[in-house]
Design brief:
Strand content: 15-25%
CATH class of the largest domain: Alpha Beta
Number of domains: 2
Number of helices: 18
CATH superfamily of the largest domain: Endonuclease Chain A
Helix content: 25-40%
CATH topology of the largest domain: Endonuclease, Chain A
Distance between the termini: 21 Å
Structural class: alpha+beta
Number of strands: 22
Radius of gyration: 23 Å
């Protein structure tokens, strides 16, 4: 539940853990033993719940799904909290990370309160970032009506990341594969999906660096599909209840009593309330719920999630020949891009196209499509060594004619309009794509090898020109007020970064906003960063 380090990328932590195993001569540990499980299923929408009645009464056509984009972190958090407070039957919650900070603990207490009201709460967390939090999670799991399961858990060395990987060297292929999905469903009626984990920095609750991210509220025809995707993970053989992973000598009732103190109930203030309106002009979704009518964009949409069996590297084959996984998020997003006719805009904080992605870009460029990509600059990223993977392809993308924009941590700080996204330093975390100005992807998938074949992801493909245009307007603000355009200097293949300040073009010839030390360290580490682990 701790936030990922801002200076140690995933592949470096894994490498250090592997080295530590040899140095410490540790043993190895496999997936914890199987437990006696009874399949559990989502409860469908019912008019017996207030959320169910509102969702059903707001839907103009049974085949359509309703959406509202949530670029503002305060709105996205408030929506999740209000759904948890108003749920009457079920809450299905799935996250890669729930930080042990004010926001994370507050949400856990809100889920606990729902369970005490009699709501069935199923909380599924990836186990990578739960180091040292077993006592808190066991206390939460002692709540009646609440079950907490861990995806692909570490059975030993749980007090630290180093200890976990030290105990799992011979099982590295498994523990390297993580559940990156983010999903929140209330009463089988309303949901939130997108790019945000749970933590202060995802919801503009910090005075320092905040993530620029994107979620969408969902109701209507897509909810049963999202619920079935959650069930697929919840009932997966790679999931364990936390009690089956961690043995506790503390009686269940005592653990339950300890939750208040462990979750900081007396010391954690509630989150700041959202503003009256967000950057798109919407009021908080709770106002719609109070009014009994959802003001949404109703349209066709599809939802996809990668199979939980990615945890063992399982590949779809026919006659021993690997096939494309047509249910994967990557396959379906790339197919939408390939069907495009005029243009595609891709937003990804971690952008490593790889050979396959570069080939796809070349294919659509040869058909005359325009490509625009937005990603983090070296100074803005929270994974600086991952930037080396992107940098390997930057010149090739420019040669293909792609437009590239890199988010500037300093320009977002100075921008008044981007202040609506957060305060102080801004870092990109949104994952989206817009094809032909009319088809929108929103989800958890980055455009990088880890999302392609290692981690599991979830994604929504929404066929709505109105929503696509909303996202393009948000992206345009990022480009003009918060990013540098990357280009070749005229007549050369030397990269430069361009912005406009007070109507005057500013040109930089080195990684913007970064220090000499940042750049030197990057040059040293770049050859040591295998693309498969970025």
């Amino acid at each position: 539940m701790r936030a990922r380090s801002s200076r140690w990328p995933h592949w470096m932590r894994l490498g250090l853990a592997g080295v530590a195993v040899f140095l410490l001569a540790s043993g190895c540990a496999m997936l914890p033993p199987e437990f006696e499980r009874t399949p559990s299923k989502a409860v469908p929408l019912s008019a017996d719940t207030a959320l169910g009645r509102i969702a059903k009464g707001s839907q103009p056509d049974p085949d359509l799904s309703g959406f509202r984009l949530m670029p503002g972190g305060d709105f996205a958090l408030d929506t999740r909290l209000e759904l948890a407070r108003r749920a009457q039957r079920t809450l299905d919650v799935q996250y890669y990370q729930i930080h042990n900070d004010e926001t994370g603990r507050y949400l856990l207490r809100t889920l606990r309160d729902a369970a005490l009201r009699g709501v069935r709460v199923r909380l599924l967390m990836d186990d990578l970032y739960t180091s040292g939090e077993d006592e808190l999670l066991l206390a939460l799991a002692a709540t009646p009506n609440l079950e907490l399961r861990l995806f692909n858990p570490f059975p030993a060395g749980r007090g630290s990341m180093l200890g976990r990987f030290s105990a799992s060297l011979l099982d590295f292929s498994r523990v390297n594969r993580r559940m990156h999905n983010k999903l929140f469903i209330a009463d089988g009626a309303m949901a939130v999906a997108g790019g945000r984990n749970i933590g202060n920095e995802y919801f503009t609750q910090t005075a320092g660096a905040n993530f620029i991210d994107l979620d969408t509220f969902v109701a209507g025809a897509l909810i049963p599909r999202l619920a079935s995707l959650f069930d697929q993970y919840w009932n997966s053989e790679y999931v364990r209840p936390i009690e089956a992973v961690v043995a506790s000598p503390v009686p269940r009732e005592e653990r339950r009593r300890r939750f208040e103190a462990l979750s900081g109930a007396q010391t954690t203030p509630p989150p700041r309330p959202p503003a009256p309106n967000d950057v798109l002009g919407y009021s908080p979704i709770v106002e719609d719920i109070k009014a009994g009518k959802l003001d949404l964009i109703w349209t066709r949409a599809e939802a996809y999630a990668d199979s939980p069996e990615r945890v063992i590297g399982k590949q779809v084959t026919y006659g021993g020949i690997p096939l494309l996984d047509v249910d994967s998020v990557r396959y379906n997003v790339i197919e939408q891009i390939r069907r495009g006719r005029s243009d595609v805009t891709i937003v990804s904080p971690y952008l490593i196209p790889g050979k396959g992605g570069l080939d796809a870009m070349r294919e659509v460029r040869e058909r005359g499509m325009k490509i625009s990509v937005v990603t983090n600059s070296l100074a803005a990223t929270d994974e600086p060594v991952v930037h080396t993977g992107y940098r390997r392809y930057r010149e090739d993308m420019l040669k293909l004619g792609a437009e590239i924009y890199e988010l500037s941590s300093q320009r977002t700080r100075r921008s008044v309009r981007l202040g609506l996204f957060g305060t102080q330093i801004g870092r990109l975390h949104a994952k989206s794509a817009v094809i032909d100005g009319s088809t929108l992807f929103v989800g958890s998938m980055n455009f990088d090898p880890r999302s392609d074949v290692v981690n599991t992801e979830i994604g929504l493909i929404i066929f709505s020109r109105e929503m696509a245009q909303q996202v393009l307007k948000l992206i345009e603000v990022l480009k003009q007020q918060g990013a540098y355009k990357v280009r070749f200097a005229p007549g050369t293949e030397r990269i430069e970064w361009v912005s406009e300040e007070a109507g005057v073009e500013q040109v930089l010839t080195s990684e913007p906003d970064s220090t000499l030390w940042d750049r030197v360290v990057l040059e040293i580490l770049a050859p040591l960063a295998p693309e498969s682990l970025l």
